[in-house]
Design goal:
The structure is a single chain. By secondary structure, the protein is an alpha+beta fold. It has three helices and six strands; from the N terminus they run αβαβαββββ. The strands form two sheets. Strands 1-2-6-3 form a four-stranded antiparallel β-sheet, with helices on both faces. The chain has a two-stranded antiparallel sheet with strand order 4-5. It is elongated.
Length: 98
């Protein structure tokens, strides 16, 4: 019965950093953006950032980006939706994403 919750706690909530033009501009102000798992919460994201990068987040915002309809090479389809976390750090802290 509890195998689902045990599996979700063992798996990492953070998938990858989200590298976009907007995310790059926000990184200059100690705000970093990550793609996260669908089951992730603000608390789990904050704990993993602290463990992975040795910095303590001041605030974590989470938002869902919906899937979009796309039309490419004469075929219609759907791009996948993603859940992202915006992590705010103190003024002296920084994360090196390269």
């Amino acid at each position: 019965m509890n195998t689902i919750s045990k599996q979700s706690s063992k798996a990492s909530s953070i998938k990858r950093p989200r590298i976009t033009e907007k995310a790059t501009m926000l990184a200059e102000h100690n705000v970093f953006t990550f793609e996260i798992a669908k089951h992730a919460t603000k608390g789990t994201v904050a704990a993993e950032i602290k463990a992975m990068y040795n910095v303590t987040p001041v605030k974590v915002n989470i938002t869902m980006l919906p899937a979009k309809k796309v039309f490419m090479r004469g075929k219609s389809g759907k791009s996948t939706g993603v859940k992202k976390a915006v992590v705010y750090l103190k003024k002296g802290d920084s994360i090196n994403i390269v």
